[in-house]
Amino acid sequence: MLEPPPTFASQYASLRERPRALPYDPSGEVVRGQFHLLWPNLKLNVFPGRPNLSIGPVFPDGPDRTTGYLDYFFGEDVDDGRIADLLALDDQVGREDRALVESVHQGMRSGLVEYGRLLLESEQLILAFQRWLVDAVS
Predict the structure, then answer these.
(1) Residue boundaries of the structural domains of the chain
(2) Which of 6, 20, 42, 67 could form a disulfide with 61 if both were Cys (CB 3.0 to 4.6 A apart)?
(3) Which residues contact residue 136 at a Cβ distance below 8 angstroms, ignoring those fewer than 6 apart?
């Protein structure tokens, strides 16, 4: 489920009945993932499984690049193995997302594509962010 209120964007993810093989066990008290961006640049994430939270800023680092970091917090009874598995999964997802975004930027820089189109159902959070940005600079 995607949700773009006026000052934040949220994506909620429920577990599948049979999750595909992951390097992380998503069973635990947290039954739904939550991934939020608070305008303009703060990320908050909760993965399904044992109690966890990651939070951190994203900063512009040029016209087509950002940089940022996340601090991670876990419930006091979450064991080191589960923490390591969640960090590995988060790192894997981050690498995959980065590769996708970089390929879009490469395509846009090529000059072969004048502009891109959003898939309004699945990319409404991108549209919301672009509108917030236009409102902020106009």
Answers:
(1) 2-137
(2) 67
(3) 40
